[in-house]
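To whoever is on call:

I kicked off a structure prediction for a single chain this morning and the downstream step that reads the tokens threw a length-mismatch warning. I double-checked the sequence; it's 78 residues and nothing unusual in it as far as I can see. Pasting both halves so you can look.
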Amino acid sequence: MSAINVRFPDSLHRNARELAKFDNTSLNQFIVSAVSEKVATLKAERAFEAMAARGSKERLDRLMAKIPNVEPDPHDRL
């Protein structure tokens, strides 16, 4: 495990400390969780962008053409 020294604006530090207490976690665990969420979000975004780059409108149109044009079941209606 690595340790880093991070400088936070006082207001952000105060808010993070309060939220960690509300979340019943340590400030360290709260920050680790927040960074983990950000990393996961950015990795997913990159993966989606890569998938989108491999796609094509023609392939989408062919796939959509396979879907039958029927009314939705009553429980699926808005």
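Update from on-call: the warning came from a stale cache, not from the record. Cleared it. Sanity check on the structure: The chain has three helices and no strands.
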